[in-house]
Specification:
The protein is mainly alpha-helical. It has 4 helices and no strands. The structure holds heme C.
C-alpha cells in the first residue's frame, strides 16, 4: 500500500517537473508584443501567466491591482505604473467580451 503511495507521489512530482516555473503551455496572443512580454515577466512568478480571455476588460483592473499587492507581499519587484498600464492595456485588448 505505501509502495503505491510512493509511486503516486513520484508520478505527481515528475509531472510537476514538466512545466518549469515561467514556462507554460498557454499561448499569449501576439507573444512578441511588449504587453505579452510584460505579462510573462510579471505574471509567471507564482502561477502560469493567465490568458487575457479569463476576464472582461472591466474586470482586469481589479485583478491586476490584487496581483500587484501579491507581488508586494512577496517582496517581488513591483510593476512600475507605466508597466502596469501596458499590462492592463494588453489584457484588455484581448480580454473576454
Ligand atoms: C506574487 C504572486 C503572484 C503574482 C506575481 C501574480 N499572481 Fe495572479 N494569483 C496569485 C495567487 C496567490 C492567486 C490565487 C488567489 C487569488 O485569486 O487572489 C492568483 C490568481 C490569479 C488569477 C485567477 C483568479 C482571478 O481573479 O481570476 C488570475 C486571472 C491572475 N492571478 C492573474 C495574474 C496576472 C495578470 C498577473 C501579472 C500581472 C499575476 N496574476 C501575477 C499570485 C500571483
Amino acid at each position: 500500500m505505501s509502495r503505491v503511495c510512493f509511486v503516486v507521489a513520484l508520478v505527481v512530482l515528475l509531472s510537476a517537473c514538466e512545466l518549469p516555473q515561467g514556462q507554460t503551455k498557454i499561448s499569449l496572443p501576439e507573444p512578441e508584443s511588449e504587453g505579452a512580454q510584460l505579462v510573462k515577466k510579471f505574471c509567471s512568478d507564482c502561477h502560469a501567466p493567465p490568458s487575457p480571455l479569463v476576464h472582461t476588460a472591466e474586470e482586469w483592473p481589479n485583478v491586476l491591482y490584487r496581483m500587484q499587492e501579491r507581488r508586494r507581499m512577496k517582496a517581488y519587484t513591483l510593476m512600475l505604473e507605466q508597466e502596469q498600464e501596458q499590462v492592463l492595456n494588453y489584457l484588455q485588448q484581448f480580454s473576454k467580451s
